[in-house]
Amino acid sequence: MALYSEAARCEPCSHQALLDEDIARRLVRAAAGCLSARRCPHYDDGWHVRAPEPATDSDDE
To answer: pLDDT tens digit string along 11-29?
Structure first.
């Protein structure tokens, strides 16, 4: 498996790692729900993984 730190970066998406779908899904599974995968809007075959946005106090209202 390729190293995440060596993955190509997507400039339009704030230089997030540009992954293929299989690698992105493996990372999500390995992180036990702490990450989510989404298709890159700029590259047809590219995927990104990221942590969910933290909840804020205003979300409780």
So the answer is: 999 999 999 999 999 999 9
Q: Are the C-beta atoms of 43 and 18 separated by less than 8 Å? A: yes
Can you give the pLDDT at residue 58? 63
Q: How do the domains of the chain map onto residue ranges?
A: 4-50
Handedness of CA 37, 30, 27, 34 (dihedral sign): positive
Helix (H) or strand (E) holding 23: helix 21-30
Q: What are φ and ψ of residue 19, in 5° steps?
A: -115, 160
Q: What is the distance between the alpha carbons of residues 21 and 7, in angstroms, rounded to a whole number?
A: 13
CA distance 6 to 37: 18
